[in-house]
Write a structure and sequence with these properties.
Blueprint: H1 6-50, H2 67-83
Helix pairs in contact: 1-2
């Protein structure tokens, strides 16, 4: 059984950090999308029941993981692995 090199460990930590940060963005984007859809449904209902013109909100911006976020998450994971 061979042990992993420091480079392999770092690559695994970066991959894990990217997954964590990407999942966080996915959850936040999904929540913003659901909130926006709910608001649009409410506005649509109001437009039909009051027979008035109401502007729909702009669709939410989709965010993605930045390099800095991934690196910061990797540093936190490395700190945990190194120092327990």
């Amino acid at each position: 059984m061979s042990s992993k090199t420091p480079y392999e460990i770092r690559a695994e930590i970066l991959t894990l950090a990217q997954g964590i940060v990407s999942e966080r963005h996915y959850v936040q984007n999904d929540k913003r999308q659901r909130d926006w859809e709910k608001e649009c449904e409410t506005i649509s209902f109001l437009m039909h029941t009051t027979n008035s013109e109401i502007g729909f909100p702009k669709s939410p911006e989709v965010t993605t993981a930045s390099v800095d976020e991934v690196i910061n998450a990797a540093k936190q994971l490395n700190e945990f692995v190194t120092n327990g």
